[in-house]
């Protein structure tokens, strides 16, 4: 079920709202970048994402040039907030939001949220890696 969640970086400079469905699933990736972040995200649509403040406080990192993924983080506290992308195989434009920055996600919702694993390390994105316990 879609619900409006609010997220922010650690220092509060960047804040957003997004309509998301945690029960529909979240994802974790083992690529070299996501592994370092211990990334856990939930995918939403661009039209259901609102940056409420701090556009000027965002910086971005483009990993895997040509993949069309823009990792947005706060230039002050360094917290990664979301990834914007446009991948036709994934339905086009999307925003993948870091679950850890959702201020009003209830513990029970997070515990119940299904996790899909992506083997980005081996460019086998659509399948889970052989091992995930260390991630």
Offer a concise description of the structure:
With 135 residues, this protein is mainly beta.
Oligomer: single chain
Strand order of the largest sheet: 4-9-8-7-6
Q: What separation lies between the terminal Cα atoms?
A: 27 Å
Structural class: mainly beta
Whole-number total of structural domains:
1
What are the secondary-structure elements, in order, as H or E?
EEEHEEEEEEHE
Tell me what portion of residues adopts beta-strand conformation.
35-45%
Contiguous runs where pLDDT drops below 50 for at least 5 residues: none
How many helices does DSSP assign? 2
Helix content: under 10%
Given this structure, which CATH class is correct?
Mainly Beta
Main beta-sheet strand count, sense and barrel state: 5 strands, antiparallel
Radius of gyration: 14 Å
Second rung of CATH, namely the architecture: Beta Complex
Shape annotation: globular
Give me the CATH fold name.
Answer: Metal Binding Protein, Guanine Nucleotide Exchange Factor, Chain A
Say how many strands there are. Answer: 10
Average pLDDT reading: 93
């Amino acid at each position: 079920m879609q619900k409006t969640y609010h997220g922010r970086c650690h220092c509060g400079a960047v804040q957003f709202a997004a309509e998301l469905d945690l029960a529909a699933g979240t994802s974790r990736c083992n690529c070299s970048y996501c592994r370092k972040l211990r990334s856990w995200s939930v995918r939403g649509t661009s039209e259901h994402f609102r940056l409420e403040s701090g556009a000027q406080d965002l910086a971005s990192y483009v990993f895997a040039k040509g993949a069309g993924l823009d990792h947005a983080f706060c230039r002050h506290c360094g917290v990664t907030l979301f990834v914007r992308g446009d991948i036709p195989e994934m339905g086009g434009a999307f925003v993948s939001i870091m679950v850890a920055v959702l201020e009003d996600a209830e513990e029970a919702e997070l515990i119940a949220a299904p996790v899909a694993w992506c083997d980005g390390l081996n460019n086998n994105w659509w399948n889970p890696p052989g091992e995930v316990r260390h991630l």
